């Protein structure tokens, strides 16, 4: 009986986690730029990322990095949104400190999630890492408000901004051109064609490889210029 109770308790306490392809959990939250609803951002891509706490070393380096590259996200129609379980007052003081110490103004909103509502909806609380702070979770949400990618980092490891931008470039290319992208892909490099679904499709592809300018390693793996 004790085992059953412990199992039930563990399931109750387990963080919720949106899955890739799910609608992004809706929220309305207080931020450093006023109230924000996820629905306000419909039509934009969103990078929602959490950090453990304000005035912490790794988090500070991340915010400086995101702020310095905010225009690159904006060019991709991406809205950055930060989050931690700190007050708006703490956020504002921290942002001012970042501007004073690093000469960088953070242009995107930061959610003050004191009641952990948003953090719990997105599975950002991992009890073994800390019960009152969020891990480094990052969600890429597309312009239809669907979760397209999820990244989790331990508290001790700062994120790679280049990789976040690369994933967005890949997803937007996939949507636009109906292709896939290979390992280590970057914009301008060849993309992968969807594999044939029938024998007729396979034969047609093999017959037009040279004419279409495809580079085929085998019938199931063909690349073309982006």
How are the SSEs ordered, and which strands pair?
Elements: H1 2-13, E1 28-31, E2 34-37, E3 45-50, H2 57-68, H3 70-75, E4 78-84, H4 88-102, E5 110-112, H5 117-121, E6 136-141, E7 147-153, H6 161-177, E8 191-192, H7 199-207, H8 209-212, E9 215-218, E10 221-224
Give the CA-based shape.
elongated
Q: Which residues form runs of ≥5 with pLDDT under 50? A: 1-13
Distance between the termini: 59 Å
Strand content: 15-25%
**Tally of individual helices:** 8
Helix content: 25-40%
Strand line-up across the major sheet: 5-4-3-6-7
Overall number of strands: 10
Binding site for substrate: 136
Protein name: Peroxiredoxin
Enzyme class: oxidoreductase
Family: Belongs to the peroxiredoxin family. AhpC/Prx1 subfamily. Belongs to the peroxiredoxin family. Prx6 subfamily.
Polypeptide structure, described:
It is found in: Cytoplasm. Belongs to the peroxiredoxin family. AhpC/Prx1 subfamily. Belongs to the peroxiredoxin family. Prx6 subfamily. Homodecamer. Pentamer of dimers that assemble into a ring structure. The active site is at 59 (cysteine sulfenic acid (-soh) intermediate). Residues 18-173 form the Thioredoxin domain. The protein has a 5-stranded mixed β-sheet. The protein has a 3-stranded antiparallel β-sheet with strand order 8-10-9. It has helices at 2-13, 57-68, 70-75, 88-102, 117-121, 161-177, 199-207, 209-212, and strands at residues 28-31, 34-37, 45-50, 78-84, 110-112, 136-141, 147-153, 191-192, 215-218, 221-224. It has 8 helices and 10 strands. It is of the alpha+beta class. The chain starts with a helix and ends with a strand.
């Amino acid at each position: 009986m004790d085992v059953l109770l412990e199992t039930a308790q563990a399931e109750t306490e387990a963080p919720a986690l949106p899955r890739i392809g799910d609608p992004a959990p809706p929220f309305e939250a207080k931020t450093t730029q006023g109230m924000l609803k996820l629905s306000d951002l419909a039509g934009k891509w969103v990078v929602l990322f959490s950090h453990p706490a304000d005035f912490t070393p790794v988090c500070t380096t991340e915010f400086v990095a995101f702020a310095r590259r905010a225009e690159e996200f904006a060019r991709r129609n991406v809205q950055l949104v930060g989050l931690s379980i700190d007050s708006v007052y703490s956020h504002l003081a921290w942002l001012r400190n970042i501007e004073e110490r690093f000469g960088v103004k953070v242009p995107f909103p930061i959610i003050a999630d004191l009641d952990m509502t948003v953090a719990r909806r997105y599975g950002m609380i991992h009890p073994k890492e800390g019960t009152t702070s969020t891990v480094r979770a990052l969600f890429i949400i597309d312009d239809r408000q669907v979760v397209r990618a999820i990244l989790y980092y331990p508290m001790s490891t700062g994120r790679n901004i280049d990789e976040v931008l690369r994933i967005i470039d890949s997803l937007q290319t996939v949507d636009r051109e109906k292709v896939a992208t290979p390992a280590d892909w970057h914009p301008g490099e060849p993309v992968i064609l969807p594999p044939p679904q029938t024998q007729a499709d396979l034969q047609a592809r093999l017959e037009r490889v040279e004419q279409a300018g495809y580079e085929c390693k085998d019938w199931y793996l063909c690349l073309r210029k982006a």
